[in-house]
Design goal:
The protein has about 1200 residues and is mainly beta. About 5% of the residues lie in helices and about 40% in strands. Strands 1, 2, 3, 4, 5, 6, 7 and 8 form an 8-stranded antiparallel β-sheet that branches. Strands 9, 11, 18, 19, 20, 21, 22 and 24 form an 8-stranded antiparallel β-sheet that branches. Strands 51, 53, 58, 59, 60, 62, 63 and 64 form an 8-stranded antiparallel β-sheet that branches. The chain is elongated, with a radius of gyration of 42 Å. This is Contactin associated protein like 3. It is found in: Membrane.
Length: about 1200
């Protein structure tokens, strides 16, 4: 059939459609499976009537009974009402409602595409009415009782409500079609029609436009496809073959009516099949779509169309009146081919038929449909004891086997994998091939059709748990409940979502597997690196790969354009486009969530004006995220048409607002950062004033860098049981996920609640060790519980994640095993709420929640608890006490400090730095470089920030730790001395072994203790810990596995400490700590402090960083006895105590009485390591060129943007 394109409109019913349809029907319009007596016949089943026995009752009350009503013609039915049998104990508690146009091939009415059963009566007299969500257009109705009064029997009176239905029908036999020409293009086009067919392929409609455009509506393998093609139409100077395809529906070749609507309006197309709507856009004008291509079937439609309306024009009525062309054999009726199906609905279903096979052979044929890949189809015994034939499905392929005496005598396979199969089950027979669930029709034995009506009447054969005269198969993947691109597959009673490679997880691929921000990763203890960020969680925005700098910026995203460009004289304007790996929606979400964002924008100029201030039109401008042009520069305010110098009043010319606007014949620059979040990032930069001789310019656009997560610490403190926050109704009809953190000292309380008329959703702390997630979507209250091994009311933050979807509900608490509950296979699925959402309290109970809730997210959207708490009595914004939970993230003696919106780690007493005191402070040393640290008394007004610069002078022991790598022997690592020539020295001897030399008393000789480790001057990183308390000394050496090696370089050993000092040190020192003092850290971070003296060049490096630690560690414990062997060693792990009788030892006695002690880390750095060539490239910062020419401003190397080092702090995604 070929006809003009149009879109679809739902019919609008202005008149009420609720008239009684049954009460005036004759008794001949009623049929039933059986009747108890003539007075219990189906003709007495009219609502509120007392004729006969007061209603219909079957002979036997079982699930195979039915009551059928013939309405006389196709009618619109909008409601149904039931009663029990008058004056009796007979009524129906629940039932199925079926409909059909022919009295065969019944179809079940379903609510919400899932609920099939209607609730019935609880007594004989009350009327229970159900109004349909969607009207039914049918001639026949059939009621199948499911349950009835256990103290009575099935008893029923019935009424249906609706109105007349106008039906114009046309039938096509596979070669015919109608040709309809439109009057001209229209800005809005509507098409609606109903169709039905038992053939799964054919073109329903085809449109051709004047410019090679076409549109095709095609039934293909039981699905409906809409093809749009632009053809070879010229489009904005280009030609191409634009093609869009959308599909909807499934199992549409079931000989039931299906409704199709399409609406085309200004490039937007709404495509609806039955109740499923798709919306998509295309860039073509109305009037056609491409000719049918090779991907189409090219087969005409074989079936019936009804009520075809194009822009309110009745196409079938025009065809009947011969106002359009009719090609082929077309009839204006819809002949029905009766093909009675049967459904095997459960594993217990079977059909057994008598069969005497013909002498010369046998023949079996049937049509089948199923979702299952395995199942027995047919089995019977062959004549003459030749064995048993088994016809079955295996991995969705058809197989036949003949088995005799346990041995396979024949084995055949046929066909490709089926997506739909019809099966009959054996039931009582042995079945080694699995049960079958599906539909079957047109079953033939020896070319004779099996009369399933007689089977239903028990005249021939027998059966169990079959649904006669209907195919009850359901496509649970159309529409698909799998979200975020999850692939849907199904069996007979359920579906499964494959979430691989989607970034989401769960039964419906609803919940993101990634964290919403760098801040969330950071507070799980993760270090800097690349992470996938899903800003809106289960929302539509896709995850993005971001570099997270845990020590500073939350995230960095780089553009793919050139960071910098040097420009010389040109007659044309220079345009630079910057595309980011994240799309506009992702960037917008990332920027909105961040507390602060910035992007560097620099312009260097020589006779090249920038904004042409104060009054001229700007020569250069840039475009932000939303496409608007901006004429302010980095460091200035939005809409100011100024640069940073104009804001600070220090431009080269006071009358100008930018340095470059002075138009000097010398290099100047205007640089700064853009920080107005609504305008970021820079998408395009236009540079204009480079068209004069001598004009030169250079620009730089840095990466987008954002800080913090304003949602992560968004919290509210509920200090009264009656206090709560309220928000708009939560909309999570099919999928709902809720996550939040809480901390409390209370034993119970409701976290949140939202109510509907009957439905609700609630999460509560039911006891100190149990959290309950409960809801009702119409199937009755449903609960998921998680019990924890520890109390949750411990004033620590705990994380709760709850999800509910059409398949299951789940609940997770912290990192404990979660709990899941399966949803009913055929229950209600829509969560319908209408009240406000209550947080921290409830409308249905008195006791609310006492404590803190933060980071509350519902379906990926964060609720602003602090904003609402500011205006709500009994609730305070924010919540203190984060260190109880996150204090453990502060490493290496770092101290957790509370903040209003989080916490920080105070690293002042640690030799480490960084967000969590995890970053090692390291430096390269070479000859000529030294660090001297002087201990001083800590005055009362000294700041705690500088506490690591000072030391308590009343010590009886010391803890010394440092890391080093070197190839030099001998080498002095650490030296501590006092006024009285008492000292501590840590050095490597000529053999590379670690020696610790103590002189505790000025009148005695020094003692040397040597660890029993191998050569440590091997270029690898080693960590040394020295601990002394009174008379006990412990030395531990641990090797840190390096990432690369260095070559050896040795020198002669001078036995005196002075000689070692004169040799200096070549290598790396890291995390040097003496008790609470970190001298190397002080020298690098605060080199101008009075306690620190640095000689030579001292450069911070990451030479002490290591990715893993070796398990090999050696610990030696020594005795500090005056008569001990000065070079004696003691076995590993052997503590010695009570060895010193005097308190005048080094540090313990001396520092208490002297003014200061000098700690000299006499180490010298040339490089981190002597690296193997091309194996470990240098990490020293490169020199900076002068700004005498544009070449020295920015590198034009196109590969330079991919080079990342410690000094750039710029990363790509």
């Amino acid at each position: 059939m070929t006809m003009c394109f149009a879109d679809i409109c739902q019919p609008l019913f202005s008149e009420a459609c609720d008239s009684p349809l049954v009460s005036n029907l004759p008794q001949s319009a009623f049929r039933s499976s059986s009747q108890l007596s003539n007075s219990h016949g189906p003709g007495y089943a009219k609502l509120n009537r007392r004729d006969g026995a007061g209603g219909w009752s079957p002979l036997v009350s079982n699930k195979y009974q039915w009551l059928e009503i013939d309405l006389g013609e196709r009618t619109e039915v909008t409601a149904v009402a039931t009663q029990g049998r008058y004056g009796s104990s007979d009524w129906v508690n629940g039932y199925f409602l079926m409909f059909s146009d022919t009295g065969h091939n019944w179809r079940q009415y379903r609510q919400e595409d899932s609920i099939g059963a209607f609730s019935g009566n609880t007594n004989a007299d009350s009327v229970v009415m159900h109004k349909f969500q969607q009207p039914v257009f049918t001639q026949f109705l059939r009621v199948l009782p499911l349950d009835w009064n256990p103290n009575g029997r099935v008893g029923l009176r019935l009424e249906a409500y609706g109105c007349r239905y106008k039906s114009d029908v046309v039938s096509f036999e596979g070669t015919s079609y109608l040709l309809f020409r439109t009057t001209g293009p229209s800005t809005r086009n509507l098409l609606s029609m109903n169709f039905k067919s038992r053939h799964n392929t054919g073109i329903l409609m085809h449109v051709e436009g004047q410019h090679g455009q076409t549109l095709t509506l095609e039934l293909l393998k039981g699905k409906l496809f809409l093809h749009l093609r632009k053809g070879t139409l010229q489009w904005r100077g280009t030609s191409g073959d634009f093609h869009t395809t959308a599909s909807s529906g499934s199992l549409l070749d079931d000989q039931h009516w299906h409704r199709v609507t399409m609406e085309h309006l200004r490039g937007r197309v709404n495509f609806t099949v039955d109740k499923t709507t798709m919306l998509f856009f295309h860039k073509i004008s109305f009037g056609g779509v491409p000719a049918v291509g090779s991907e189409h079937s090219r087969r005409n439609f074989h079936g019936c169309l009804e009520n075809v309306l194009y822009n309110d024009v009745n196409v079938i009525e025009m065809a009947r009146d011969q106002q359009l062309s009719i090609m082929g054999n077309v009839t204006f009726s819809c002949p029905e081919t009766v093909a009675m199906p049967v459904t095997f609905a459960s594993p217990e279903s079977f059909l057994r038929l008598p069969w005497e096979a013909a002498r010369d052979g046998l023949a079996v044929s049937l049509q089948l449909r199923t979702w299952n890949k395995v199942g027995l189809l047919v089995t019977f015994d062959l004549r003459h004891q030749a064995g048993t034939l088994w016809l079955y499905l295996s991995e969705a392929k058809l197989r036949l086997q003949i088995i005799k005496a346990g041995r396979v005598t024949a084995d055949m396979a046929a066909g490709q994998s089926f997506s739909r199969v019809l099966v009959c089950n054996d039931g009582g027979c042995r079945n080694p091939f699995g049960v079958f669930q599906g539909c079957m029709r047109l079953i033939h034995r020896d070319n004779t059709l099996v009369d399933l009506i007689k089977v239903q009447q028990m005249v021939i054969g027998n059966f169990s748990d079959l649904q006669m005269d209907m195919c009850g198969i359901i496509d649970r993947c159309s529409p698909s409940h799998c979200e975020h691109g999850g692939k849907c597959t199904q069996a007979w009673s359920t579906f499964h979502c494959n979430c691989s490679s989607t970034g989401y997880a769960g039964a419906t691929c609803h919940s993101s597997i990634y964290e919403p921000s760098c801040e969330a990763y950071k507070h799980q203890g993760n270090t800097s690196g690349f992470y996938h960020i899903d800003v809106d969680g289960s929302g539509p925005i896709k995850p993005q790969l971001i570099y997270c700098n845990m020590s500073g910026k939350c995230c960095t995203t780089h553009h793919r354009g050139r960071h910098s460009m040097n420009l010389k004289f040109s007659n044309t304007q220079h345009l630079a486009h910057f595309n980011y790996s994240a799309d506009t929606e992702q960037l917008g979400a990332l920027i909105t969530q961040a507390e602060y964002c910035e992007q560097e924008l620099s312009y260097h100029c020589k006779k090249s004006r920038l904004l042409n201030t104060p009054d001229g039109a700007p020569f250069t401008w840039w475009v932000g995220r939303l496409g608007e042009a901006h004429t302010y520069w980095g460091g200035a305010l939005p809409s100011s048409q100024q640069c940073a110098c104009g804001l600070q009043d220090d431009c080269a010319e006071p009358a100008r607002f930018c340095n470059c606007d002075s138009d000097l014949d010398a290099w100047a620059n205007d640089s700064g950062v853009l920080s107005h979040k609504d305008h970021l990032p820079v998408r395009l930069l236009a540079v204009g004033d480079i068209n004069r001789p001598g004009s030169e310019a250079a620009y730089r656009v840095g990466p987008l860098q954002c800080y913090g997560d304003k949602d992560f610490w968004n919290a509210a403190y509920f200090n009264k049981e009656t206090s709560y926050l309220h928000f708009p109704t939560f909309h999570g009809e099919l999928s709902a996920d809720i996550s939040f953190f809480f901390k409390t000292s209370s034993s119970s309380g409701v976290f949140l609640e939202n109510l509907g008329i009957k439905d609700f959703i609630r999460i509560e702390l039911s006891s100190p060790t149990e959290i309950v997630f409960s809801f009702d979507v119409g199937n009755g209250p449903f609960e998921v519980r998680v019990e924890t091994p520890m109390d949750l009311n411990d004033e620590r933050w705990h994380h709760v994640r709850a999800e509910r979807n059409v398949k299951e509900a789940s609940l997770h608490v912290d990192h404990l095993p979660g709990a899941r509950q399966k949803a009913p296979a055929d229950g209600h699925i829509h969560l319908q709420l209408n009240s406000q959402l209550f947080v921290g309290g409830t409308a249905s109970r008195q006791k609310g929640f006492l404590g803190c809730i933060r980071t509350l997210k519902l379906n990926g959207n964060t609720l602003d608890l602090e904003e609402r708490a500011n205006i709500t009595p009994g609730v305070r914004p924010g919540c203190p006490g984060h260190c109880n939970t996150y204090g453990g993230l502060c490493q290496n003696q770092g101290h957790c400090v509370e903040r209003h919106n989080g916490f920080t780690c105070d690293c002042s007493v640690s030799a480490y730095t960084g967000t969590f005191c995890h970053k090692e402070v390291s430096a390269y040393f070479r000859p000529g470089t030294s660090v001297t640290y002087v201990f001083r008394e800590l005055s009362g007004n000294a700041s705690t920030q500088s506490s690591y610069l000072y030391s308590d002078l009343s010590l009886r022991g010391e803890n010394v730790s440092l890391s080093f790598s070197t190839s030099q022997t001998p080498a002095l690592l650490l030296y501590v001395s006092s006024y009285h020539r008492e000292y501590l020295a840590v050095f490597l001897n000529r053999n590379g072994q670690l020696d610790v030399k103590y002189k505790l008393q000025s009148n005695k000789e020094a003692e040397v203790f040597r660890s029993n480790t191998r050569n440590l001057a091997n270029g690898q990183l080693h960590r040394v810990s020295i601990r002394r308390h009174a008379e006990s000394l412990s030395v531990q050496v641990r090797q840190i596995l390096p990432s690369c090696q260095m070559s050896d370089k040795s020198s002669e050993l001078d036995p005196e400490i002075a000689r070692l000092n004169s040799l200096g040190f070549t290598g790396c020192l890291s995390v040097v700590q003496f008790n609470a003092v970190a001298p190397l850290k002080a020298a690098l971070l605060y080199p101008h402090t009075s306690t620190v003296t640095v000689s030579g060049t001292l450069t911070e490096s990451n030479c002490g960083s290591s990715s893993s630690s070796s398990p090999y560690a050696a610990e030696t414990t020594h005795s500090l006895l005056g008569k001990a062997d000065p070079f004696g060693t003691v076995g590993t792990g052997e503590p010695v105590v009570n060895a010193i009788s005097s308190d005048s030892a080094l540090i313990g006695g001396v520092i208490a009485v002297v003014i200061f002690v000098i700690l000299a880390a006499l180490a010298i750095m040339a490089r981190f390591l002597y690296r193997r060539k091309e194996t470990c490239p240098t990490q020293e910062p490169k020199g900076v060129k002068s700004e005498d020419s544009p070449e020295t401003l920015f590198s034009n190397d196109p590969n330079s943007q991919g080079v990342i080092n410690d000094n750039q702090k710029e990363y790509f995604i």
